[in-house]
Amino acid sequence: MKCSKCDRDAVIRIPYANLYLCKEHLNEYLEERVERTMRKYGMLKGVKRIAVAVSGGKDSTSLLHILHRLSQRLGFEVIGVTIDLGIDSGRAYSSKSVEVAVKNFEALRVPYRVVSLKREYGFTVEDAKRGIRRPVCSSCGLAKRYVLSQVAEEEKADALATGHNLNDMAQFVMIGYYSGDVENLARLEPVSPPKFYSHYKIKPLFLTYEKEIMTFALVNGIPFMIESCPLSWRVGGTTQEAMRRKLEELEEQVPGFMLRLVETFVNKVRGPLAEKYVREEEVSKCKVCGRPTVKGRDICSFCAMRLKLARSQGVSKVS
After folding, report:
1. How many domains, the chain?
2. Residue 103 and residue 95: Cα distance in Å, rounded?
């Protein structure tokens, strides 16, 4: 098929918008969509420096490239951040992920930070899997949130951007409805205001379909990791996997379904849920790292995890 905007061959069909787009017009379409999303939801307000969390996957690497393009026109800075989680499992998974992330940073000539969990915090995600009774993805998520926020703070970023896409958000919404976890559902938002840190957390791709991001990465020759994490291939169970498949089936039958689902949730449902179920928490300082934590807790969740790991290895304290 030909592009709906010119005579070049189309690289993608976007059913909900009734469009066929070539490479150039797909790039233009996604840049405009991300900019519009960021403006509508206040992601650019007062923001001069954005830290982009890059795992090496298609979403985060594409986000880096899109924000880099927008930064040149809109006048903000971009810094890349990636974490070496120490996941090997015979595949050198984390090493490859870091290599891909750095390749993107250097191709775009953006400043970046690589944080080694083992070198800077004394453990890897595989250590956590072996050493404490906690789901490995929970430990990994906790570590990533802590480290990314700390780096964003150290780099004086006004916002920390992650690559969550529309398919991810639709799945989170449906799982929240299904499980009845209204408190976490109420906290599911595209922009999280500063709480323990001074920067916003933003999801610029939260209204962008996974297929569009994948096509963008492929046609622009963006390096990204195709391999999934070897520790998480069965995590989440059949319920989450089934819900994601059903959402994608519904999208095929009703183009725009996921977009409408997420927009309706964010614009009309989340606010009333937050008013009823989310309470502002007072803040104190962690006695180990000095970073903010919920008042009443002497130690933050991240340092508590580090302490459990250290004790499992015969070490009584962490620094």
Report:
1. 2
2. 12
Whether 68 and 58 share a structural domain = yes
pTM beyond cutoff 0.90? yes
pLDDT in tens, 262-291: 999 999 999 999 999 988 777 888 999 988
- 173 and 293, same domain (yes or no): no
Which residues contact residue 226 at a Cβ distance below 8 angstroms, ignoring those fewer than 6 apart? none
Q: Are 83 and 147 in contact (CB under 8 A)?
A: yes
> What is the Cα gyration radius of the chain?
20
Question: Do 215 and 311 fall within a single domain?
Answer: no
* 179 and 215 inside one domain: yes
C-alpha 188/C-alpha 200 separation (Å) is 14
Burial classification of residue 83, based on how many CB atoms lie within 10 Å of its CB (0-12 exposed, 13-18 middle, 19 or more buried): buried
* Same-domain status, 173 and 273: yes
Q: pLDDT tens digits for 83-106?
A: 999 999 888 999 999 999 999 999
Domain that holds residue 302: 280-319
Residue 318 clears pLDDT 80, i.e. is over it: no
DSSP string for residues in 26-70: HHHHHHHHHHHHHHHTTSSTT--EEEEE--SSHHHHHHHHHHHHH
Q: Are residues 149 and 296 in the same domain?
A: no
pLDDT reported for residue 319: 61
Residues 74 and 118 grouped into a single domain: yes
**Residue closest to 15 by CA, chosen among 255, 253, 247:** 255
Q: What is the mean pLDDT of residues 191-204?
A: 90
Same domain for 128 and 84: yes
CB 307 within 8 A of CB 299: yes
Contact 104, 61 (CB under 8 A): yes
Residue 137 pLDDT > 70: yes
Alpha-carbon dihedral angle through residues 279, 308, 197, 201, given to the nearest 10 degrees: -80
